[in-house]
Amino acid sequence: MGVFEALSGAKGLRVAGKSAQNIANFNAEVAKQEAIGIRKRAAFAQKRQAKRGVAAKSALIAKLGEGLTSPVAGDLIAEQAVETELENLLIGFEGEVRARQAESQAELDILQGRLAKQRGKSAGRAANIQFGTQLATLGFLSGFGQTGVGTPVKVQ
């Protein structure tokens, strides 16, 4: 079968399909690593933003000074805390969305690789069939076996 596959070109088609799958799997691994990196960067950005929030709250308290007993001051500090928390949640949410997009791309790459491998196998089968048909046709045309001598058929 090895020579037949080589002559028909099927082996090359199968190898090309497998190579495409390997490339897709590599791309998937890159996308998975990107997702991990995105999550880590988002977590770091959340920590950095939380520190900025604490600093902003401290600066607000310092500006208010003696007016801390005022209900307006309490509302301002509470509002600042809510804004800080919402911003922190948004950073985390955006990071998670980007990470999931990268993971989805990884899954898509893996699927495309499987399809490429299957296309290579199918193309290889088609090449084998086509080559076999050509050989059979050439065999009949060139007269494998007895040429010009027919087998008598009895009609009853």
Automatic annotation (TrEMBL):
Name of this protein: Uncharacterized protein
Species annotation: marine sediment metagenome
